[in-house]
Structures are given as structure tokens and as C-alpha cells.
Specification:
The chain is an alpha/beta fold. It has nine helices and eight strands. InterPro entries: Amidohydro-rel (IPR006680), Metal_Hydrolase (IPR032466), Metallo-dep_Lactonases (IPR052350).
Length: 275
């Protein structure tokens, strides 16, 4: 079972469905991908399933992703967004009753979410997500020590650190200047990492040799059951297949059993997505 841990679907900004003003320059491409286009990309590389992650530039919306999951429940499921500033505690106990919804995703790299997190850390959110048994994906470069504290306070909370917490725009060795803080999180059994969109942080063409050594350290620390491959394909600087082959062909330190976990089984287990 091959499972992509991150794909975005969205609709264009329009008068009937406006984006927040801050998001109008952030989309990965000017034309949103369609469901059919996404399925063609997945099918061409033999990908069985994908986790749909609603993008931050649309605001806190899940409708496009949930509609795709409802239409193709055997291919898609969703890690949804919530408006953190409104303290929507009451929705979390029934969050997974939404067809296709697996958990939650936070983007703490941009405003207003980053300032809100730095102000009070959203303690109500972590407490309620843990109580509801909801896995949480979070993209939070430069905030890893704070996430470590949260993971320790909430041992029943399943956290996934997106994109290895690599900052947008950083490449080569500069992209991994926070790797020690990331590896320290491996000591916490309720923390996993998403090895997604990594070619965006390479200075080299396939097989992206400058990623191999830091990835080896990540796998040694977290183990294959807590490292999840993904594409974020709408912003890749390479082909979808090359992004996949970085893991399936180029990383010679991964065994066949490791690959089964990294390429899908580990993620399915962590998210509770029945195989």
C-alpha cells in the first residue's frame, strides 16, 4: 500500500468563495489542481491513497478536500483545518464523524496562526485533541522546542511534524540547521515526522544527494514506523516519480520492510486509516 502523506486540493479565489487577503499570493500555482488531475498523477506512479491537506491560503476550509474524499473514499482521506482563534472545542469530540476526516492539521509558519501560537500556545486545542484521540499534523519551523513541551504534556496526543520542519526557501545544509531539535523529538514516542516535499530543499537534481545524510539521521532516530513519505506535489521542483524514487530507489539504507512502513503502512497505522 503506497500512501502519499500530503496533497493539496483547492478552488480559485472568487467573489463567492474569497480567500483571506494574505493567501492570494501564496498558492503553489495559479490554476488549482482538479481531482481527476490528481488521480492521474497518483495512478501514474502506482500510489494507492493520499492524505488531502487543505492549504492555508484558502483560510480554514475543508469542503474541497472532504468532497473529494466523499467521491473517492478508497483513495482520499482528510486532515482538516479549524479556526483556532475561535476555540471550537465543541467540534473536536465528533471531528472524525465527518466522512473522510482523519484528524487535524495546523500551519504555524505564517500569520495569524504563528503569532497566536506564540502568544498562548493554544493549550485548549492540544488538550481536546488528545481527549478526542485525534492525530495532528503541524508545520512549525523554528517552534520545535515548544512542540516538544506540548508532546510531553500530552503523551496521548499523536503529533506529526510536517516537512521535517524545514523552513520554506531553505536548501542544502542550510535547510537542516534545526535538525538537532528535530532529532530530540524522536525520544518522545508520540511524535512522528513527515518526510514530504523534500526535493524543494535540495540543491541538486535527482537523486538529491544532499538530502541523503540528514535523512539517514532522521530514520535512525525515529525509525521507519514514525517517518512518512509524502509529495506536496503541486510545489515540487521535480517530477512526482523522482520524489517517490528518492525513497524507493536512492536511499540504500532502507530495507524492504522499512520501505513498506515509510511508504504507507506506518502512516495508515498512525492515522488509524484502515487498510
Amino acid at each position: 500500500m503506497l500512501v502519499d502523506s500530503q496533497i493539496h486540493l483547492w478552488e480559485a479565489h472568487s467573489a463567492g468563495r474569497p480567500w483571506p487577503s494574505a493567501g492570494r499570493q501564496a498558492a503553489h500555482r495559479p490554476t488549482p489542481p482538479t481531482v481527476d488531475e490528481t488521480l492521474r498523477v497518483l495512478d501514474a506512479s502506482g500510489i494507492d491513497r493520499a492524505v488531502l491537506v487543505p492549504p492555508s491560503w484558502e483560510g480554514d476550509r475543508n469542503d474541497v478536500a472532504l468532497a473529494a474524499a466523499a467521491e473517492h473514499p478508497d483513495r482520499f482521506a482528510v486532515m482538516g483545518r479549524i479556526p483556532l482563534h475561535t476555540k471550537t472545542v465543541r467540534v473536536l469530540p465528533t471531528w472524525r464523524q465527518q466522512p473522510g476526516m482523519l484528524g487535524l492539521r495546523l500551519t504555524l509558519h505564517s500569520e495569524p496562526w504563528r503569532s497566536g501560537f506564540q502568544l498562548d500556545g493554544f493549550p485548549w486545542f492540544w488538550q481536546e485533541a488528545e481527549a478526542a484521540g485525534l492525530p495532528v499534523m503541524v508545520y512549525a519551523p523554528r517552534l520545535l522546542p515548544s512542540l516538544a513541551l506540548i508532546a510531553r504534556r500530552h503523551p496521548g496526543l499523536r503529533l506529526i511534524i510536517d516537512h521535517l520542519a524545514l523552513p520554506l526557501g531553505r536548501t542544502g545544509i542550510d535547510a537542516f540547521d534545526e535538525i538537532e531539535e528535530l532529532l530530540a523529538l524522536a525520544l518522545l514516542p508520540n511524535v512522528a515526522v513527515k518526510a514530504s516535499a523534500l526535493p524543494c530543499h535540495s540543491r541538486e537534481p535527482y537523486p538529491f544527494a544532499d538530502l541523503h545524510a540528514p535523512l539517514h539521521r532522521v530514520f535512525d532516530a525515529f525509525g521507519p514506523a514514525r517517518v512518512f513519505w509524502g509529495s506536496d506535489w503541486t510545489r515540487l521542483p521535480c517530477s512526482y516519480e523522482e520524489n517517490m524514487r528518492l525513497f524507493t530507489d536512492a536511499l540504500d539504507f532502507l530495507s524492504d520492510d522499512d520501505l513498506r512502513s515509510v511508504m504507507g503502512d506506518g502512516l495508515l497505522n498512525w492515522l488509524g486509516w484502515a487498510s
